[in-house]
Amino acid sequence: MGAYLLRRLALLVPTLFGIILINFVVVQFAPGGPVEQMLAEMRGQGSGAIGRLSGESQGETTRAPSGPAGGEGAPAGNYRGARGLDPAVVADIERMFGFDKPAHERFLTMMKGYLTFDFGQSLFKGRSVVDLLWEKLPVSVSLGLWSTLIIYFVSIPLGIRKAVRDGSRFDAWSSALVLVGYAVPGFLFAILLVVLFAGGSFVQWFPLRGLVSSGAESWPFWQRAADYAWHMVLPTVALVVGGFAGLTMLTKNSFMEEIGKQYVLTARAKGAGEGRVLYGHIFRNAMLLIIAGFPAAFISILFTGALLVEIVFSLDGLGLLGFEAAIRRDYPLMFGTLYIFTLLGLVMQIVGDVTYTLVDPRIDFEARR
pTM score, two decimals? Predict the structure, then answer.
């Protein structure tokens, strides 16, 4: 197992490099970069924007990162927004954002900083990318962790019960509920929860925004914990309803496949009770894929499933931050979040492989060729 882990860790570097390189090349052809946005703003606001540019050029504000993480396919002077502007002003804008250098030089500078987790400065927020990621991380981790845990605690017992009572009334009506949960997107259910329980049209039992109430910092610990749980109810429920359906059916199908195997019939023939057969023999084999998939499920909810839910409930997390960075073409922030997301995803794949061996020691990755 040790040699296998070393090989997987060694593959992290080229895989991560390749993903960042591909996305960097794609960004070169994407229109509407930060230089073009600044030029459009200057055309719309005239001397006020030019005055701000002059101040930034003299060092009053540092907006450029240590190494820009993207760029445009054409020089700023060829933009429509650049027409009618002094070429010196356009050159200052390119220099301010770091786009006066060739693309390959910008990429190498960016990757050199990424080796030490130096992602530079956000182009439009004027803050370190690391500080922004660290600030938003607790929101997304809270939402992803609690949602994943509840999904597993609900789906696994429900899936086992459906497998044991396959074809019964319970299996039929629970399958109908699972189908509804699978069909309704999480963000639509989030809007419904807001309308019903967050002051939309009926009652206001739960807060609509954030994870803590105003002034909660001065409250006792137990009161802050209760306030945090109160804020987490609606967004967590919105993610759970949309996420438990697939895992429930996977659990049921896994148990159904194992129930008919010979070792189960042998255990029953020896007089083992139903509980012993179910949880002593079937559980380990049936739950192998499900338990080992927990790290990947957590990452999926953390970085993909929670975006629209964060927007609905005004939760300022990583999903919303990445969305805003893409809209504003904030390249250091875009590629910083991409780097972190990709790195965590690759690491969680390795954690998933390790979990396989913990659930079933018979699995030996060293024997794979």
Answer: 0.69
Residue 39 reports pLDDT greater than 60: yes
Cα separation of 333 and 63, whole Å?
12
Q: What is the DSSP string of 212-225?
A: S-TTGGGS-HHHHH
For 359, half-sphere exposure in the C-beta direction (CA atoms, 13 angstrom radius) is: 20
Helix (H, G, I), strand (E, B) or coil at 360: coil
DSSP E strands, the chain: none
Give residue 169's identity as a one-letter amino acid code.
R
Q: Which residues on neighbouring strands pair with residue 158, listed in sequence order?
A: none
Q: What are phi and psi of 362, to 5 degrees?
A: -70, -20
Q: DSSP readout, 87-111?
A: HHHHHHHHHHHTTTS-HHHHHHHHH
Q: Report pLDDT digits (tens) over 302-348.
A: 665 567 787 788 787 877 787 788 887 888 888 888 888 888 878 88
| Residue 251, burial from CB neighbour count under 10 angstroms (0-12, 13-18, 19+) | buried
For residues 209 and 198, what is the distance between their CA atoms, to the nearest angstrom?
10
- For tokens 């954030």, the residue is 210
HSE-CB at 127 with a 13 A cutoff on CA atoms is: 9
Beta bridge partners of 171: none
> 202-240 pLDDT, tens per residue?
777 888 777 777 777 788 888 888 888 888 888 888 888
Report in angstroms the alpha-carbon separations of 219 from 44, 99, 148, 216, 329: 47, 48, 29, 5, 40
Percent of the chain with pLDDT over 70: 74
Running DSSP on this structure, what letter comes out for residue 205? -
